[in-house]
Amino acid sequence: MAVAGTEESGGPLAGVRVVELAGIGPGPFAAMLLADLGADVVRVDRPGGARLGIDPACDLTNRNKRSVVVDLKAADGAERVLRLTDRADVLIEGYRPGVAERLGVGPEACHARNPRLVYGRMTGWGQDGPLAQRAGHDIGYIAVTGTLGMIGGPGEPPAVPANLVGDYAGGSLYLVVGVLAALHHARATGAGQVVDAAIVDGTSHLTAMIHGMLAAGSWQDRRGANLLDGGCPFYGTYETADGGYMAVGALEQQFYDEFIGLLGLAGGAPDRGDLTRWDELRTLVAARFRQRTRDEWTAVFDGSDACVAPVLTLLEAPGHPHLAARGTFVDHGGLTQPAPAPRFSATPTAVRSGPARPGADTADVARDWGVPELDGPIKKGS
Questions:
Q1: Active site residue 167
Q2: Over 80: is that where the pLDDT of 9 sits?
Q3: pTM (2 d.p.)
């Protein structure tokens, strides 16, 4: 496992200034990704800090950021934030539609003072539509897109994929893509814009290939019946003798042949192309995997192209030989965490600082951004 250095690393977004209006979930994760890439992200926390329910010192989504505290409900709260956005390239907020406007920091107020600003909005339902004003969480957003209904075994309830598919894949990553595209446009034209990143939109977009397969008749609209959803006996997970699991992804014929050979079923398995015998093949494979432990099977498939891997826990993952060799996880400030991704040859990234504590950086940000009002009274006419 690599150890993150303390040296300053610019990253490809060095020099980009981002204001993040504090929230939870996909907004902070998107801002963390921009910060990991080198942007100077200032998180505007509310008095009392976030209400995430964990120790702020362990909230890794606030790493590589700085924090100031502003009460947006105070008479001068909006003006303090607007003076930050005057000097920013990007703003990210995750309020329900209309809330930022009521607080005085909506797109119109910001663009009146900084026309080049990219204003990123992160919501579940989007800025319009019948459900735009309704509360929601990841599980509901991915449910209505058809994505949740794809995941799980046949005849079983859909399996909940934590909040990775909606909040972070369909939400945060699409917000970041949108912000970077709009930033490129703003630098070319001088015109900022609003990026409406809705989790329902991004998650639906993730299913593009599946919709194509559905239209072509090569995907059944039900769980556990398809090539990539666990319905295929050579693309799924199998329990081992010690209660562990192995993941099998031997799709191509040459990889499948190696898989069956190492499993000890060469010449004794039914034709994989005969879908009517998939249940028979799955039964044979499952029986074989139950004969050895996870570690024993890992050793059997080590160094092969059989496309088989052990299913590790979160605590086990940093110790995997490949991930350790690449430094996929790092230690910083006593916290083991995923390293910034992706990697850059000319502008390397790093975990530069631990989670920002609410308000801890007010004086530094006031100085560096040239906004003395953050650390003192606002003077009329200034």
A1: yes
A2: no
A3: 0.94
